[in-house]
């Protein structure tokens, strides 16, 4: 009778373990595809600021390459 709790704990542990494995799989797949971890809570403003920053960095790199030639 002392081992009855194991009947519930074992499936619960398996389910929790599978959830952790799937969460980590999503993290590593996204990191492999995009080269960086996924940002949590990215909204339209954040995406627009990322595009703006990328464009500014590209323009700065192009300007510095043109001035060095």
Strand and helix map with partners:
Elements (H helix, E strand, L loop, with lengths): L3 H31 L9 H25 L1
Subcellular location: Mitochondrion inner membrane
Protein name: NADH dehydrogenase [ubiquinone] 1 alpha subcomplex subunit 1
GO cellular component, one term: mitochondrial inner membrane
Structure described in brief:
The chain is mainly alpha-helical. It is built from 2 helices and no strands.
Descriptive notes:
By secondary structure, this protein is mainly α. The protein is built from two helices and no strands. The protein has helices at residues 4-34, 44-68. The protein is rod-shaped. Keywords: Electron transport, Membrane, Mitochondrion, Mitochondrion inner membrane, Respiratory chain, Transmembrane, Transmembrane helix, Transport. One of its GO terms (cellular component) is mitochondrial inner membrane. This is NADH dehydrogenase [ubiquinone] 1 alpha subcomplex subunit 1.
User: Can you count the helices?
Assistant: 2
Give the low-confidence spans: none
Helix-strand makeup class: mainly alpha
Q: What is the radius of gyration computed over CA atoms, rounded to a whole number of angstroms?
A: 23 Å
User: What does the main sheet amount to?
Assistant: none
Distance between the termini: 83 Å
Percent helix among the residues? over 70%
- Count of beta strands: 0
Overall shape: it is rod-shaped
Order of helices and strands: HH
Strand percentage lies at under 5%
| Average pLDDT reading | 90
Which descriptors would you attach to this protein?
transmembrane helix; rod-shaped; 2 helices; mainly alpha; 0% strand; 69 residues
